[in-house]
């Protein structure tokens, strides 16, 4: 794959992940309004989230989208500001993506299980 083609695909991934994030944000805000009425103590929150598969799938998707979006955005900014590019940069951004994915999915699992 040529570098130009790879950059185009990564840019598309960032755009699509941004669109998913915008939708997730709307659902998340609606969820916050609902949650405020239902109570915000740890017990009340866990009472709503435990065993709630749709909740887990939704926030899992949110985590996947941000794990794609944030490292790609950071990659563009690092390239622009520092000139860092190439394989080492790609590996560092992939590591960041895996870290965000791991921490995020672990957090979702902690409130859903
Ligand atoms: C609801 C959450 C978010 C939405 C809706 C969103 C949306 C967007 C959009 C529409 C763009 C422009 C994409 C393009 O020009 O193709 C963008 C760029 C960017 N986003 Fe996000 N974003 C969100 C969260 C985040 C988070 C949490 C981070 C980092 C921790 C982040 C980092 C970036 C960066 C660094 C860019 C600039 C990339 C560049 O200059 O090429 N975004 N975002």
Automatic annotation (TrEMBL):
Pfam families: Sdh_cyt (PF01127). Its main location: membrane. One of its GO terms (cellular component) is membrane. It is found in: Membrane. Coiled coil: none annotated. Keywords: Heme, Iron, Membrane, Metal-binding, Transmembrane, Transmembrane helix. The keyword Zinc does not apply. One of its GO terms (molecular function) is metal ion binding. The chain crosses the membrane at residues 12-36, 56-78, 90-112. The keyword Iron applies. This is Succinate dehydrogenase/fumarate reductase transmembrane subunit. It comes from mine drainage metagenome.
